[in-house]
Design brief:
The chain has 227 residues and is α/β, with parallel strands linked by helices. The chain has a single domain, classed as P-loop containing nucleotide triphosphate hydrolases (Rossmann fold). Helices cover 35% and strands 28% of the residues. It is built from seven helices and ten strands. Strands 6-7-8-3-9-10 form a six-stranded mixed β-sheet, sandwiched between helices. A four-stranded antiparallel β-sheet has the order 2-1-4-5, covered by helices on one side. A hairpin with a 2-residue loop joins strand 4 and strand 5. The two termini are 21 Å apart. The relative contact order is 0.20. One of its GO terms (cellular component) is plasma membrane. Belongs to the ABC transporter superfamily. Macrolide exporter (TC 3.A.1.122) family. Its EC number is 3.6.3.-.
Length: 227
């Protein structure tokens, strides 16, 4: 079997609130294989976002092991975490967080330029991804000229632009109406599979979770594998 693109062992996170200790993650063990799309189920407040922040190396204060691409990441210094996020991870959130002064293409080009791509290569890649997502006629439109579903498609293209081994998505279509959510989520899954990336997708929607390769549920701070 290939080395997991993501593996956690005994991952823990606690908070103090009003002098009371709250254990959000209580020993999470998870492995995501290359190319695998895993649904992370759980109601609001169950710790899904906390887990994504941990494996995305966005916060400290966690205990346990986080291995990304076979490399231990939990104890990396700040610069090492930044490098690993840039090289191996991509993020999609419920809200698109597009740059308002840049058009759709420019929003997808920018992370590639930061990574060191030439402008011509970045432009070609952005056009390719946006066209696959049905936005070939909206390449020069700014976010305020796009619908909610179109904005989220641009966010998906931006996340995949640098061909990340692992995509972390937190309710990626939760801000859309049901019909648009279904359509955009299907396009997201197809693109991730075509690109060969792995993904860990937090959701409370069991219907969307069933469309992924595997489902795990966060319950009382631990993961349960679902049939």
């Amino acid at each position: 079997m290939n080395e997991p693109v993501l593996q956690t062992r005994d991952l823990r996170r606690s908070f103090e609130q009003g002098g009371v200790r709250i254990d959000v993650l209580r020993g999470v063990d998870l492995a995501v294989q290359p190319g695998e799309i895993v649904a992370l189920l759980g109601p609001s407040g169950s710790g899904k976002s906390t887990l994504l922040q941990a494996v995305g190396l966005l916060e400290g204060g966690f205990e346990g092991s986080i291995r990304i691409g076979g490399e231990e990441a939990a104890q990396l210094p700040a610069g090492g975490r930044t490098d690993m996020r840039r090289e191996k991870l991509a993020f999609i959130y419920q809200f698109h967080h597009l740059l308002p002064d840049f058009d759709a293409t420019e929003n997808v080009v920018l992370p590639q330029l930061i990574r060191g791509a030439t402008r011509a290569a970045a432009q070609a890649r952005a056009t390719e991804l946006l066209t696959q997502l049905g936005l070939g006629h909206r390449l020069m439109h700014r976010p305020n000229q796009l619908s909610g579903g179109e904005q989220q498609r641009v966010a998906v293209a931006r996340a995949l632009a640098n061909r990340p081994p692992l995509v972390l998505a937190d309710e990626p279509t939760g801000n859309l109406d049901e019909a648009t959510s279904d359509r955009v989520f299907g396009e997201f899954l197809n693109l991730v599979r075509n690109e060969g990336s792995a993904a860990l997708v937090a959701t409370h929607n069991e219907r969307l979770a069933a469309r992924m390769d595997r489902v795990v549920r966060l319950h009382e701070g631990r993961l349960e594998e679902m049939a």
